[in-house]
């Protein structure tokens, strides 16, 4: 588990056969951006091509810096021929993705299990 100092952020990376799930919790903002970027970069670099689920159920807050990191990781994974799916997106985050037009950019599934199954072709 990665936990940012003096912030409310943590990440847990779980590797499945051919897919990686990153469970995020806390705040995705300027104070946690470096730790968020590192956790997601570690996840994307685990498989070729990268197939990553970012589980957001535990996220309490996300600002433009947090969104920027998510977009950057998505772009990197797609450039490598991979996919990034989001899961566990709560109402506040759904509104944020809708207001910013990112629902057209990110694939969102209800659960991490649903997203993993899709990534693995199930």
From TrEMBL:
InterPro entries: Anti-sigma_ant (IPR003658), STAS_dom (IPR002645), STAS_dom_sf (IPR036513). Residues 9-119 form the STAS domain. It comes from the Bacteria. Coiled coil: none annotated. One of its GO terms (molecular function) is anti-sigma factor antagonist activity. Belongs to the anti-sigma-factor antagonist family. PANTHER family: ANTI-SIGMA FACTOR ANTAGONIST TM_1081-RELATED, ANTI-SIGMA FACTOR ANTAGONIST TM_1081-RELATED-RELATED. This is Anti-sigma factor antagonist. It comes from Nonomuraea muscovyensis. The lineage of its organism: Bacteria, Bacillati, Actinomycetota, Actinomycetes, Streptosporangiales.
């Amino acid at each position: 588990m990665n936990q940012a100092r003096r912030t409310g952020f943590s990440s847990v990376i779980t590797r499945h056969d051919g897919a990686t799930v990153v469970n995020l919790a806390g705040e995705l903002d300027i104070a946690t951006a470096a730790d968020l970027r590192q956790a997601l970069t570690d996840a994307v670099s685990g498989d070729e091509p990268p197939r990553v689920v970012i589980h957001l159920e535990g996220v309490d807050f996300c600002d433009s810096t947090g969104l920027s990191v998510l977009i950057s990781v998505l772009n990197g994974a797609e450039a490598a021929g991979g996919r990034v799916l989001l899961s566990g997106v709560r109402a506040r985050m759904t509104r944020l993705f809708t207001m910013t037009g990112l629902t057209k950019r990110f694939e969102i599934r209800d659960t991490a299990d649903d997203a993993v199954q899709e990534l693995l072709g199930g």
